[in-house]
Automatic annotation (TrEMBL):
The lineage of its organism: Eukaryota, Viridiplantae, Streptophyta, Embryophyta, Tracheophyta. Residues 28-62 are annotated as: Disordered. This is Pectinesterase inhibitor domain-containing protein. It comes from the Eukaryota. Residues 63-222 form the Pectinesterase inhibitor domain. InterPro entries: Invertase/methylesterase_inhib (IPR035513), Pectinesterase_inhib_dom (IPR006501). SUPFAM superfamilies: Plant invertase/pectin methylesterase inhibitor. Keywords: Disulfide bond, Glycoprotein, Signal. Residues 34-43 have a biased composition (Basic residues).
Length: 231
């Protein structure tokens, strides 16, 4: 009878196991592998991503730089030309016509500065460059001359503005006339000082006049390239 009882007991156990839900069997089988991994041992996190390096600023186009140099080679003042054109970022994408307009604009900036300098000297607000200049600015005649100088530089600026418009209209002959006139206006100022107050022409205006003359020369040289290209 013992063997029969043993077999009966085994059959009952198997029957009970078959009737139990699978979830119950799983919950009694101990901690899952996932749980054991989360609860024990170090956690491995992915290393932080390195920052993306900043893109370098775009360099000036070699073609643009070559055009500036070749254009300035046709001018009387090469270094001044390269400096004046290079100071304007738009020269990197400009053609020869654009470079001529940039050169005219550089001359116009100088003319505006000359007008402001002459006006300041006339009003007695500019610092005297030496001890002998102070009484000169107090002279009514000198002040009148300086006001005339301010007006002449203003006329030079206006002439250069007209030159830019002529360049835009591709009327290069008129552009040349306007730029040439702009260079002449400050010389009227110098001539008046020589006749009425010799030796009292301010050094600041001497420097402005020469710089404007050279910038106008550069502008006209580039305008001549444009005129020759269509003739």
């Amino acid at each position: 009878m013992a063997p029969m009882s043993t077999m009966t007991n085994k059959a009952l156990v198997l029957l009970l196991l078959a009737l139990l839900p699978l979830g119950t069997l799983g919950s009694r089988s101990g901690p899952s592998a996932h749980h054991g991994h989360a609860g024990h041992g170090p956690k491995h996190s992915s290393p932080p991503s390195s920052p993306t390096p900043a893109s370098p600023a775009p360099a000036a186009s070699p073609t643009a730089a070559t055009l500036v140099r070749s254009t300035c080679n046709s001018t009387t003042y090469y270094d001044l030309c390269v400096s004046a054109l290079g100071a304007d970022p738009s020269s990197a994408t400009a053609d020869v016509r654009g470079l001529s307009s940039i050169a005219v604009s550089a001359a116009a900036i100088n003319a505006s500065g000359g007008a402001a300098t002459a006006a300041a000297l006339a009003n007695g607000t500019a610092a005297a460059s030496n001890a002998q200049a102070a009484p000169a600015t107090a002279d009514a005649t000198v002040q009148a001359l300086l006001r005339t100088c301010a007006a002449k530089y203003g006329q030079a600026r206006d002439a250069l503005s007209a030159a830019r418009e002529s360049i835009a209209a591709q009327d290069y002959d008129f552009a040349n006339v306007h730029v040439s006139a702009a260079a002449e206006y400050p010389q009227v100022c110098k001539a008046l000082f020589r006749r009425q107050r010799p030796g009292q022409y301010p050094a600041e205006l001497v420097a402005r006049e020469e710089a404007l003359r050279q910038l106008c020369s550069v502008a006209n040289d580039i305008i001549a390239l444009l005129s020759n290209s269509i003739s």
